[in-house]
Amino acid sequence: MGKSLGIFFFQRGNTSPEVIAMDLNRLTNEAYNAYVKAKAKPSPMGKNLVWAFLVGGGICLVGQALLDGYASLGLDLTQAKTAVSITLIFVTALLTGIGVFDRFAKHAGAGTLVPITGFANAVVAPAMEFKQEVRCIIGIVRENRNR
Predict the structure, then answer these.
(1) pTM given for the model
(2) What angle do CA 122, 126, 130 make, to 5 degrees?
(3) Contact assessment for residue 80 and residue 22, using Cβ atoms and an 8 Å cutoff
(4) 5/22 Cα distance (integer angstroms)
(5) What are the pLDDT digits (tens) for 105-124?
(6) In the beta sheet, which residues pair with residue 111?
């Protein structure tokens, strides 16, 4: 007997969440695309492109300023580039760890995906999520142990 794949959409109703179940085996691509298009919020693409360009350019500008600053401190070009990479990764990891980078990225959009800052955020964010899950599991184990 074949497996039935399904997708569930949760919507807030007047009093309780309403669950809409769709059987993906019976749903055509056209019907699914129509459903998604009806539910999706339109995105202002022009504004998003300009904003991503400005934010990404701003991050690159900060990187260039750091490079010039490290070079003026007497580091050769290779050492200055390494110091800039380390600084950007450290600052992004720190801001991700304290929850600032994610709020910034929410408003800044794709501009924060400049490779080095996107990499640092992609490494630190799952680690922070795992830390929260482990705390939850430890709390459950301690609660059950105390019974």
Answers:
(1) 0.60
(2) 170
(3) no
(4) 9
(5) 887 877 787 778 887 888 88
(6) none
